[in-house]
Request: fold
Amino acid sequence: MKRIEKNIKINAYFWKPTSLLIFTFFLTACSSDAVTDILVNDEGAIEDMLVEDNQAEPFDADINGDGELNILILGTSKSIHNGAEAFAPDNIAAELNKILSEDVNSTATVYVEAEDIYKSKEISVALGSGGNEYNYTHYSHSLVQYYYWPEGMETRMDKLSGKGDKNWDYVVIAADPYIVSTLPGYYSLGVNKIATKVAEGGAKPVLMMMWPKNQTSLAPLALFEEFTYRTAEGAKVALETIPAGLAWEALSDEKKDESVIHPSPNGSYTAAAAIYSQLYGQSASDSEYVYDAAIAETVFLSVANAANKNHFSGDRNFISPFKSCGINDIVIHYNHTGTSSENGILGGLNWVFGKSDKVLERDGPSPINFNFGRANTNFEASKRYRVDASAFDFSFGFPMQDGSSTGNVSQLYGIDKRGSQTENGTDLGVALHMVRESELPYARAIPVRTLFAQLKEMNIITSAYRDNWHMNRDLDKAIAGYMYTLLTGDCDLGTAPVDQASAEWKSWAAHKIGYETAWNLMYLEGNAPNCQ
Reply:
Protein backbone atom coordinates (compact mmCIF):
# COMPACT_ATOMS: atom_id res chain seq x y z
CA MET A 1 0.00 0.00 0.00
CA LYS A 2 1.30 3.44 -0.84
CA ARG A 3 2.20 5.89 1.93
CA ILE A 4 -0.95 7.73 2.98
CA GLU A 5 -0.46 11.43 2.27
CA LYS A 6 -2.05 14.19 4.31
CA ASN A 7 -4.02 15.86 1.54
CA ILE A 8 -7.58 15.73 2.83
CA LYS A 9 -8.92 18.98 4.29
CA ILE A 10 -11.54 18.51 6.95
CA ASN A 11 -13.38 21.79 7.09
CA ALA A 12 -14.91 22.15 10.55
CA TYR A 13 -17.78 24.17 9.14
CA PHE A 14 -19.06 21.23 7.10
CA TRP A 15 -17.72 18.15 8.89
CA LYS A 16 -20.85 16.17 9.78
CA PRO A 17 -21.08 13.48 12.50
CA THR A 18 -21.48 10.77 9.84
CA SER A 19 -18.15 11.79 8.28
CA LEU A 20 -16.47 11.54 11.66
CA LEU A 21 -17.93 8.07 12.23
CA ILE A 22 -16.72 6.87 8.81
CA PHE A 23 -13.24 8.27 9.46
CA THR A 24 -13.12 6.71 12.96
CA PHE A 25 -14.30 3.39 11.53
CA PHE A 26 -11.55 3.50 8.92
CA LEU A 27 -8.81 3.97 11.51
CA THR A 28 -10.30 1.31 13.78
CA ALA A 29 -11.17 -1.33 11.22
CA CYS A 30 -8.16 -1.29 8.91
CA SER A 31 -5.57 -3.99 9.60
CA SER A 32 -2.13 -3.04 10.80
CA ASP A 33 -0.69 -4.17 7.46
CA ALA A 34 -2.94 -1.72 5.63
CA VAL A 35 -2.06 1.32 7.70
CA THR A 36 1.54 0.74 8.70
CA ASP A 37 2.46 3.91 6.83
CA ILE A 38 0.29 6.20 8.96
CA LEU A 39 2.70 8.25 11.00
CA VAL A 40 1.89 9.30 14.55
CA ASN A 41 4.17 11.74 16.34
CA ASP A 42 5.40 11.35 19.89
CA GLU A 43 2.56 13.50 21.22
CA GLY A 44 0.02 11.01 19.87
CA ALA A 45 -1.48 13.30 17.24
CA ILE A 46 -2.23 12.01 13.75
CA GLU A 47 0.37 13.40 11.41
CA ASP A 48 -0.80 11.92 8.12
CA MET A 49 -4.38 11.43 6.95
CA LEU A 50 -5.92 9.66 4.06
CA VAL A 51 -6.60 10.07 0.43
CA GLU A 52 -4.80 8.56 -2.41
CA ASP A 53 -4.61 10.48 -5.70
CA ASN A 54 -7.58 12.62 -4.67
CA GLN A 55 -6.08 15.99 -3.76
CA ALA A 56 -8.70 18.37 -2.32
CA GLU A 57 -9.03 21.80 -3.81
CA PRO A 58 -7.40 24.47 -1.61
CA PHE A 59 -9.93 26.32 0.51
CA ASP A 60 -10.07 30.00 -0.38
CA ALA A 61 -10.46 32.03 2.81
CA ASP A 62 -10.62 35.27 0.79
CA ILE A 63 -14.39 35.19 0.94
CA ASN A 64 -14.92 38.64 -0.58
CA GLY A 65 -12.63 37.82 -3.51
CA ASP A 66 -10.50 40.98 -3.39
CA GLY A 67 -7.18 39.12 -3.41
CA GLU A 68 -6.56 39.89 0.25
CA LEU A 69 -7.15 37.78 3.34
CA ASN A 70 -8.01 40.35 6.00
CA ILE A 71 -8.77 39.24 9.55
CA LEU A 72 -9.59 41.42 12.54
CA ILE A 73 -9.23 39.99 16.07
CA LEU A 74 -11.00 41.71 18.97
CA GLY A 75 -9.87 41.26 22.55
CA THR A 76 -9.02 43.28 25.62
CA SER A 77 -5.80 44.16 27.42
CA LYS A 78 -7.52 44.93 30.76
CA SER A 79 -10.31 43.25 32.70
CA ILE A 80 -13.15 45.14 34.36
CA HIS A 81 -12.30 43.37 37.62
CA ASN A 82 -9.09 44.43 39.35
CA GLY A 83 -6.75 41.47 39.50
CA ALA A 84 -8.62 39.42 36.89
CA GLU A 85 -6.90 38.52 33.64
CA ALA A 86 -7.95 39.96 30.30
CA PHE A 87 -7.56 38.22 26.93
CA ALA A 88 -5.15 40.26 24.83
CA PRO A 89 -5.42 39.91 21.04
CA ASP A 90 -2.01 41.24 19.95
CA ASN A 91 0.08 38.06 20.22
CA ILE A 92 -2.74 35.96 18.77
CA ALA A 93 -2.83 38.22 15.72
CA ALA A 94 0.95 38.07 15.38
CA GLU A 95 0.98 34.25 15.46
CA LEU A 96 -1.92 33.96 13.02
CA ASN A 97 -0.21 36.36 10.64
CA LYS A 98 2.90 34.15 10.66
CA ILE A 99 0.88 30.97 10.05
CA LEU A 100 -1.08 32.48 7.17
CA SER A 101 1.81 34.37 5.58
CA GLU A 102 3.83 31.17 5.27
CA ASP A 103 0.95 28.98 4.17
CA VAL A 104 1.84 27.75 0.67
CA ASN A 105 -1.82 26.96 -0.06
CA SER A 106 -2.83 30.62 0.26
CA THR A 107 -2.39 32.96 -2.68
CA ALA A 108 -3.97 36.00 -1.05
CA THR A 109 -2.09 38.86 0.56
CA VAL A 110 -2.45 38.38 4.33
CA TYR A 111 -3.29 41.09 6.83
CA VAL A 112 -4.19 40.32 10.46
CA GLU A 113 -4.99 43.14 12.87
CA ALA A 114 -5.62 43.14 16.63
CA GLU A 115 -8.16 45.56 18.08
CA ASP A 116 -8.11 46.28 21.82
CA ILE A 117 -11.64 46.98 23.10
CA TYR A 118 -10.23 48.50 26.32
CA LYS A 119 -10.45 52.27 26.37
CA SER A 120 -10.40 55.03 28.98
CA LYS A 121 -11.33 58.69 29.00
CA GLU A 122 -11.90 61.32 31.68
CA ILE A 123 -15.42 62.72 31.41
CA SER A 124 -17.22 65.45 33.33
CA VAL A 125 -20.38 64.09 34.97
CA ALA A 126 -23.25 66.08 36.43
CA LEU A 127 -24.66 64.30 39.47
CA GLY A 128 -28.06 64.87 41.02
CA SER A 129 -30.81 67.27 40.02
CA GLY A 130 -28.55 70.16 41.12
CA GLY A 131 -26.13 69.26 38.34
CA ASN A 132 -22.84 69.61 40.27
CA GLU A 133 -20.10 68.32 37.96
CA TYR A 134 -17.31 65.91 38.82
CA ASN A 135 -14.54 64.39 36.72
CA TYR A 136 -14.48 60.61 36.43
CA THR A 137 -12.27 58.40 34.30
CA HIS A 138 -14.55 56.10 32.33
CA TYR A 139 -13.51 52.68 31.00
CA SER A 140 -14.50 50.31 28.22
CA HIS A 141 -14.16 46.63 29.05
CA SER A 142 -17.28 45.01 27.57
CA LEU A 143 -18.15 44.52 23.92
CA VAL A 144 -21.27 46.65 24.45
CA GLN A 145 -19.31 49.60 25.82
CA TYR A 146 -16.74 49.25 23.02
CA TYR A 147 -19.57 49.33 20.50
CA TYR A 148 -21.23 52.45 21.97
CA TRP A 149 -18.08 54.33 23.10
CA PRO A 150 -18.82 57.85 21.75
CA GLU A 151 -15.27 58.82 20.82
CA GLY A 152 -14.52 57.60 17.29
CA MET A 153 -17.83 55.74 17.05
CA GLU A 154 -18.46 56.48 13.37
CA THR A 155 -14.96 55.35 12.41
CA ARG A 156 -15.38 52.22 14.53
CA MET A 157 -18.70 51.33 12.93
CA ASP A 158 -17.11 51.76 9.49
CA LYS A 159 -14.21 49.57 10.55
CA LEU A 160 -16.41 46.74 11.85
CA SER A 161 -18.59 46.80 8.75
CA GLY A 162 -15.64 46.76 6.33
CA LYS A 163 -16.04 50.35 5.16
CA GLY A 164 -12.71 51.48 6.56
CA ASP A 165 -9.18 50.84 5.31
CA LYS A 166 -9.72 47.07 5.18
CA ASN A 167 -12.55 44.99 3.79
CA TRP A 168 -12.55 42.17 6.34
CA ASP A 169 -13.05 38.54 5.44
CA TYR A 170 -13.33 37.47 9.08
CA VAL A 171 -13.72 39.22 12.41
CA VAL A 172 -12.81 37.10 15.44
CA ILE A 173 -14.61 38.15 18.61
CA ALA A 174 -13.02 37.64 22.02
CA ALA A 175 -13.89 39.50 25.24
CA ASP A 176 -13.12 40.03 28.92
CA PRO A 177 -13.15 36.54 30.52
CA TYR A 178 -14.45 37.99 33.79
CA ILE A 179 -17.54 39.38 32.06
CA VAL A 180 -18.06 36.08 30.24
CA SER A 181 -17.90 34.10 33.48
CA THR A 182 -19.84 36.52 35.68
CA LEU A 183 -22.29 38.34 33.37
CA PRO A 184 -22.67 35.94 30.42
CA GLY A 185 -25.89 37.53 29.20
CA TYR A 186 -24.16 40.88 28.86
CA TYR A 187 -21.32 39.19 26.99
CA SER A 188 -23.91 37.68 24.63
CA LEU A 189 -25.54 41.08 24.07
CA GLY A 190 -22.18 42.55 23.06
CA VAL A 191 -21.37 39.65 20.77
CA ASN A 192 -24.67 40.17 18.97
CA LYS A 193 -24.01 43.89 18.51
CA ILE A 194 -20.56 43.28 17.03
CA ALA A 195 -21.48 40.24 14.93
CA THR A 196 -24.51 41.95 13.39
CA LYS A 197 -22.45 44.98 12.40
CA VAL A 198 -19.72 42.76 10.92
CA ALA A 199 -22.25 40.75 8.92
CA GLU A 200 -23.71 43.97 7.49
CA GLY A 201 -20.41 44.49 5.68
CA GLY A 202 -20.27 40.98 4.26
CA ALA A 203 -17.51 39.63 6.50
CA LYS A 204 -17.94 36.46 8.54
CA PRO A 205 -18.00 36.97 12.33
CA VAL A 206 -16.56 34.09 14.37
CA LEU A 207 -16.60 33.73 18.15
CA MET A 208 -13.54 32.75 20.14
CA MET A 209 -14.12 30.37 23.05
CA MET A 210 -11.58 31.57 25.59
CA TRP A 211 -10.28 30.04 28.80
CA PRO A 212 -9.38 31.55 32.19
CA LYS A 213 -5.75 32.04 33.11
CA ASN A 214 -6.46 30.75 36.60
CA GLN A 215 -9.42 28.41 36.67
CA THR A 216 -9.79 28.78 40.44
CA SER A 217 -10.56 32.49 40.09
CA LEU A 218 -13.29 32.31 37.45
CA ALA A 219 -16.03 29.95 36.33
CA PRO A 220 -14.87 26.47 35.24
CA LEU A 221 -14.04 25.91 31.60
CA ALA A 222 -17.32 24.05 31.11
CA LEU A 223 -19.20 27.29 31.73
CA PHE A 224 -16.99 29.17 29.25
CA GLU A 225 -17.88 26.44 26.77
CA GLU A 226 -21.60 26.65 27.53
CA PHE A 227 -21.82 30.44 27.44
CA THR A 228 -19.83 30.72 24.21
CA TYR A 229 -21.75 28.05 22.35
CA ARG A 230 -25.15 29.22 23.64
CA THR A 231 -24.30 32.72 22.44
CA ALA A 232 -23.24 31.47 18.99
CA GLU A 233 -26.28 29.24 18.58
CA GLY A 234 -28.69 31.99 19.61
CA ALA A 235 -27.02 34.78 17.63
CA LYS A 236 -28.91 37.11 15.29
CA VAL A 237 -26.54 36.24 12.44
CA ALA A 238 -24.65 33.09 11.47
CA LEU A 239 -21.85 32.75 13.99
CA GLU A 240 -19.30 29.93 14.17
CA THR A 241 -17.33 29.18 17.34
CA ILE A 242 -13.56 28.67 17.48
CA PRO A 243 -12.98 26.19 20.33
CA ALA A 244 -9.61 27.58 21.43
CA GLY A 245 -10.43 26.96 25.09
CA LEU A 246 -11.11 23.28 24.42
CA ALA A 247 -7.83 23.05 22.48
CA TRP A 248 -5.93 24.61 25.38
CA GLU A 249 -7.54 22.13 27.78
CA ALA A 250 -6.45 19.24 25.54
CA LEU A 251 -2.76 20.24 25.62
CA SER A 252 -0.40 18.29 27.82
CA ASP A 253 0.56 20.02 31.08
CA GLU A 254 4.08 20.80 29.90
CA LYS A 255 2.65 22.73 26.96
CA LYS A 256 0.51 24.96 29.19
CA ASP A 257 3.02 27.69 29.85
CA GLU A 258 2.45 30.75 32.02
CA SER A 259 3.19 34.42 31.49
CA VAL A 260 2.19 37.82 32.80
CA ILE A 261 -0.01 38.42 29.74
CA HIS A 262 -2.96 36.14 29.08
CA PRO A 263 -2.92 34.22 26.84
CA SER A 264 0.68 33.04 27.20
CA PRO A 265 2.98 32.49 24.20
CA ASN A 266 1.77 28.90 23.82
CA GLY A 267 -1.77 30.06 24.48
CA SER A 268 -1.53 32.71 21.78
CA TYR A 269 -0.29 30.13 19.28
CA THR A 270 -3.07 27.76 20.39
CA ALA A 271 -5.69 30.43 19.70
CA ALA A 272 -4.12 31.33 16.34
CA ALA A 273 -3.83 27.68 15.32
CA ALA A 274 -7.48 27.15 16.30
CA ILE A 275 -8.53 30.05 14.05
CA TYR A 276 -6.50 28.56 11.20
CA SER A 277 -7.89 25.05 11.68
CA GLN A 278 -11.45 26.38 11.89
CA LEU A 279 -11.07 28.34 8.65
CA TYR A 280 -9.04 25.84 6.63
CA GLY A 281 -9.95 22.50 8.18
CA GLN A 282 -6.31 21.49 8.54
CA SER A 283 -3.47 21.70 11.01
CA ALA A 284 -1.43 24.87 11.40
CA SER A 285 1.61 22.62 11.00
CA ASP A 286 0.78 22.58 7.27
CA SER A 287 2.16 26.11 7.17
CA GLU A 288 5.87 26.66 6.63
CA TYR A 289 5.78 28.52 9.94
CA VAL A 290 5.57 25.93 12.71
CA TYR A 291 5.82 27.28 16.26
CA ASP A 292 5.12 23.87 17.82
CA ALA A 293 3.92 20.91 15.74
CA ALA A 294 2.55 19.01 18.74
CA ILE A 295 0.38 21.96 19.75
CA ALA A 296 -0.78 22.43 16.16
CA GLU A 297 -1.87 18.79 15.84
CA THR A 298 -3.66 18.79 19.20
CA VAL A 299 -5.47 21.99 18.23
CA PHE A 300 -6.50 20.55 14.87
CA LEU A 301 -8.01 17.45 16.45
CA SER A 302 -9.75 19.55 19.11
CA VAL A 303 -11.34 21.76 16.47
CA ALA A 304 -12.47 18.72 14.50
CA ASN A 305 -13.91 17.00 17.57
CA ALA A 306 -15.69 20.15 18.73
CA ALA A 307 -17.63 20.32 15.47
CA ASN A 308 -19.43 17.10 16.41
CA LYS A 309 -19.94 17.61 20.13
CA ASN A 310 -22.90 18.86 22.15
CA HIS A 311 -21.55 21.77 24.15
CA PHE A 312 -24.52 22.39 26.43
CA SER A 313 -27.90 20.95 27.26
CA GLY A 314 -31.11 21.91 29.02
CA ASP A 315 -32.11 25.32 30.29
CA ARG A 316 -29.63 27.97 31.33
CA ASN A 317 -29.59 28.03 35.15
CA PHE A 318 -26.60 30.24 35.89
CA ILE A 319 -27.42 32.83 38.56
CA SER A 320 -26.62 36.39 37.52
CA PRO A 321 -28.09 39.88 38.01
CA PHE A 322 -29.85 39.37 34.66
CA LYS A 323 -31.47 35.99 35.33
CA SER A 324 -35.18 35.53 34.60
CA CYS A 325 -37.47 35.70 37.62
CA GLY A 326 -40.09 33.27 36.33
CA ILE A 327 -43.12 34.88 37.98
CA ASN A 328 -46.33 33.31 36.69
CA ASP A 329 -48.83 35.20 38.86
CA ILE A 330 -51.63 37.13 37.20
CA VAL A 331 -51.46 39.82 39.91
CA ILE A 332 -47.91 41.06 40.43
CA HIS A 333 -47.14 43.16 43.50
CA TYR A 334 -44.46 45.84 43.67
CA ASN A 335 -42.94 48.37 46.06
CA HIS A 336 -40.71 51.42 45.71
CA THR A 337 -39.69 54.39 47.85
CA GLY A 338 -41.51 57.02 45.80
CA THR A 339 -38.77 59.09 44.17
CA SER A 340 -39.62 60.96 40.98
CA SER A 341 -37.35 58.69 38.91
CA GLU A 342 -39.09 55.61 40.28
CA ASN A 343 -42.47 57.19 39.58
CA GLY A 344 -41.39 57.71 35.97
CA ILE A 345 -40.48 54.04 35.67
CA LEU A 346 -43.77 53.14 37.36
CA GLY A 347 -45.58 55.09 34.65
CA GLY A 348 -43.80 52.91 32.09
CA LEU A 349 -44.72 49.75 34.02
CA ASN A 350 -48.38 50.75 34.13
CA TRP A 351 -48.27 51.34 30.35
CA VAL A 352 -46.68 47.93 29.68
CA PHE A 353 -48.95 46.02 32.08
CA GLY A 354 -51.91 47.75 30.46
CA LYS A 355 -51.08 45.86 27.25
CA SER A 356 -51.11 42.48 29.03
CA ASP A 357 -53.55 40.26 30.90
CA LYS A 358 -51.60 40.79 34.13
CA VAL A 359 -52.36 43.26 36.89
CA LEU A 360 -49.77 45.43 38.69
CA GLU A 361 -50.61 46.30 42.29
CA ARG A 362 -48.67 48.07 45.03
CA ASP A 363 -47.62 46.21 48.18
CA GLY A 364 -49.57 43.19 49.42
CA PRO A 365 -48.77 40.25 51.69
CA SER A 366 -45.07 39.48 52.20
CA PRO A 367 -43.07 38.52 50.36
CA ILE A 368 -44.30 40.72 47.51
CA ASN A 369 -42.95 40.06 44.03
CA PHE A 370 -40.43 42.88 43.66
CA ASN A 371 -39.21 46.28 44.71
CA PHE A 372 -37.14 48.69 42.65
CA GLY A 373 -35.01 51.72 43.37
CA ARG A 374 -31.79 53.62 42.90
CA ALA A 375 -28.58 51.62 43.04
CA ASN A 376 -25.86 54.25 43.40
CA THR A 377 -24.38 54.23 46.90
CA ASN A 378 -23.43 57.91 46.55
CA PHE A 379 -27.15 58.84 46.73
CA GLU A 380 -29.51 58.58 49.69
CA ALA A 381 -29.35 55.06 51.12
CA SER A 382 -33.03 55.23 52.12
CA LYS A 383 -34.03 55.47 48.46
CA ARG A 384 -32.08 52.48 47.20
CA TYR A 385 -33.50 49.12 46.22
CA ARG A 386 -33.87 46.79 49.19
CA VAL A 387 -32.69 43.19 49.30
CA ASP A 388 -34.78 41.40 51.92
CA ALA A 389 -35.90 37.88 51.05
CA SER A 390 -38.52 37.90 53.79
CA ALA A 391 -40.19 40.97 52.27
CA PHE A 392 -39.42 40.76 48.51
CA ASP A 393 -38.86 37.93 46.06
CA PHE A 394 -36.71 40.17 43.86
CA SER A 395 -35.10 43.60 44.09
CA PHE A 396 -34.34 45.70 41.00
CA GLY A 397 -31.63 48.36 41.08
CA PHE A 398 -30.91 50.97 38.42
CA PRO A 399 -28.05 53.45 38.04
CA MET A 400 -29.29 56.98 38.60
CA GLN A 401 -29.25 59.08 35.49
CA ASP A 402 -26.49 61.68 35.21
CA GLY A 403 -27.63 65.30 35.21
CA SER A 404 -28.96 66.47 31.86
CA SER A 405 -26.15 68.99 31.33
CA THR A 406 -23.77 66.07 30.64
CA GLY A 407 -25.94 62.95 30.58
CA ASN A 408 -26.63 62.56 26.88
CA VAL A 409 -22.89 62.03 26.44
CA SER A 410 -21.59 60.92 29.83
CA GLN A 411 -24.10 58.06 30.12
CA LEU A 412 -22.88 56.59 26.84
CA TYR A 413 -19.36 56.52 28.30
CA GLY A 414 -20.72 55.22 31.59
CA ILE A 415 -22.05 51.79 30.68
CA ASP A 416 -19.17 49.71 32.10
CA LYS A 417 -17.13 51.43 34.76
CA ARG A 418 -16.15 54.85 36.02
CA GLY A 419 -13.79 55.89 38.78
CA SER A 420 -13.01 52.98 41.09
CA GLN A 421 -14.11 49.37 40.87
CA THR A 422 -16.60 49.88 43.70
CA GLU A 423 -18.33 52.89 42.09
CA ASN A 424 -21.77 51.62 41.11
CA GLY A 425 -23.25 54.43 39.04
CA THR A 426 -23.00 52.50 35.74
CA ASP A 427 -24.91 49.53 34.30
CA LEU A 428 -22.17 47.01 35.03
CA GLY A 429 -21.24 48.86 38.21
CA VAL A 430 -24.70 48.03 39.54
CA ALA A 431 -24.59 44.41 38.35
CA LEU A 432 -21.11 43.70 39.73
CA HIS A 433 -21.97 45.39 43.04
CA MET A 434 -24.78 42.85 43.37
CA VAL A 435 -22.27 40.06 42.74
CA ARG A 436 -19.67 41.42 45.17
CA GLU A 437 -22.22 42.01 47.93
CA SER A 438 -23.68 38.48 47.56
CA GLU A 439 -27.12 39.89 46.77
CA LEU A 440 -27.89 37.10 44.32
CA PRO A 441 -30.21 35.32 43.68
CA TYR A 442 -32.53 38.11 44.85
CA ALA A 443 -31.08 41.20 43.13
CA ARG A 444 -31.60 42.17 39.48
CA ALA A 445 -29.86 44.97 37.55
CA ILE A 446 -31.60 47.37 35.16
CA PRO A 447 -29.13 48.46 32.42
CA VAL A 448 -30.63 51.91 31.87
CA ARG A 449 -27.67 53.30 29.90
CA THR A 450 -27.56 50.27 27.60
CA LEU A 451 -31.24 50.79 26.83
CA PHE A 452 -30.66 54.50 26.21
CA ALA A 453 -27.76 53.74 23.84
CA GLN A 454 -29.97 51.42 21.80
CA LEU A 455 -32.89 53.86 21.69
CA LYS A 456 -30.54 56.58 20.49
CA GLU A 457 -28.94 54.29 17.89
CA MET A 458 -32.40 53.49 16.51
CA ASN A 459 -33.38 57.20 16.46
CA ILE A 460 -36.30 56.50 18.77
CA ILE A 461 -35.13 59.22 21.14
CA THR A 462 -32.45 61.86 20.79
CA SER A 463 -32.26 62.75 24.48
CA ALA A 464 -32.42 60.64 27.62
CA TYR A 465 -34.51 63.37 29.30
CA ARG A 466 -37.98 64.85 29.18
CA ASP A 467 -36.90 67.89 31.23
CA ASN A 468 -33.71 69.03 32.93
CA TRP A 469 -33.61 65.94 35.18
CA HIS A 470 -36.21 63.23 34.61
CA MET A 471 -35.84 60.41 32.12
CA ASN A 472 -37.49 60.44 28.72
CA ARG A 473 -40.93 58.77 28.76
CA ASP A 474 -39.89 56.29 26.06
CA LEU A 475 -36.78 55.41 28.07
CA ASP A 476 -39.11 54.74 31.03
CA LYS A 477 -41.13 52.44 28.75
CA ALA A 478 -38.01 50.62 27.56
CA ILE A 479 -37.00 50.10 31.20
CA ALA A 480 -40.52 48.86 31.99
CA GLY A 481 -40.53 46.50 29.01
CA TYR A 482 -37.20 45.11 30.19
CA MET A 483 -38.48 44.63 33.75
CA TYR A 484 -41.72 43.03 32.56
CA THR A 485 -39.88 40.43 30.49
CA LEU A 486 -37.34 39.73 33.22
CA LEU A 487 -40.18 39.27 35.73
CA THR A 488 -42.55 37.19 33.60
CA GLY A 489 -40.72 35.91 30.53
CA ASP A 490 -43.44 37.53 28.38
CA CYS A 491 -43.43 40.60 26.15
CA ASP A 492 -47.06 41.47 25.19
CA LEU A 493 -45.88 43.92 22.58
CA GLY A 494 -49.06 44.05 20.60
CA THR A 495 -49.17 44.95 16.91
CA ALA A 496 -46.68 47.56 15.69
CA PRO A 497 -48.30 50.88 14.72
CA VAL A 498 -48.15 51.46 10.97
CA ASP A 499 -46.75 55.01 11.07
CA GLN A 500 -43.11 54.73 12.15
CA ALA A 501 -42.90 58.49 12.59
CA SER A 502 -45.67 58.48 15.18
CA ALA A 503 -45.25 58.77 18.93
CA GLU A 504 -47.16 55.49 19.27
CA TRP A 505 -44.67 53.61 17.12
CA LYS A 506 -41.69 55.03 19.04
CA SER A 507 -43.19 53.90 22.35
CA TRP A 508 -43.89 50.48 20.87
CA ALA A 509 -40.28 50.27 19.59
CA ALA A 510 -38.95 51.30 23.01
CA HIS A 511 -40.95 48.49 24.59
CA LYS A 512 -39.56 46.08 21.98
CA ILE A 513 -35.97 47.09 22.75
CA GLY A 514 -36.60 46.54 26.44
CA TYR A 515 -38.05 43.10 25.74
CA GLU A 516 -35.30 42.02 23.35
CA THR A 517 -32.55 43.23 25.68
CA ALA A 518 -34.03 41.30 28.60
CA TRP A 519 -34.39 38.17 26.47
CA ASN A 520 -30.77 38.33 25.32
CA LEU A 521 -29.50 38.88 28.87
CA MET A 522 -31.66 36.08 30.29
CA TYR A 523 -31.15 33.38 27.69
CA LEU A 524 -28.02 34.38 25.72
CA GLU A 525 -30.21 34.56 22.62
CA GLY A 526 -30.06 37.55 20.32
CA ASN A 527 -33.03 36.28 18.36
CA ALA A 528 -35.91 36.95 20.73
CA PRO A 529 -39.14 35.24 19.64
CA ASN A 530 -41.65 37.39 17.81
CA CYS A 531 -44.61 37.95 20.05
CA GLN A 532 -47.84 39.87 20.19
About this structure: Residues 70-306 form a domain with the Rossmann fold fold (CATH 3.40.50.1110). The radius of gyration is 25 Å. The chain has two domains: 70-306, 331-523.
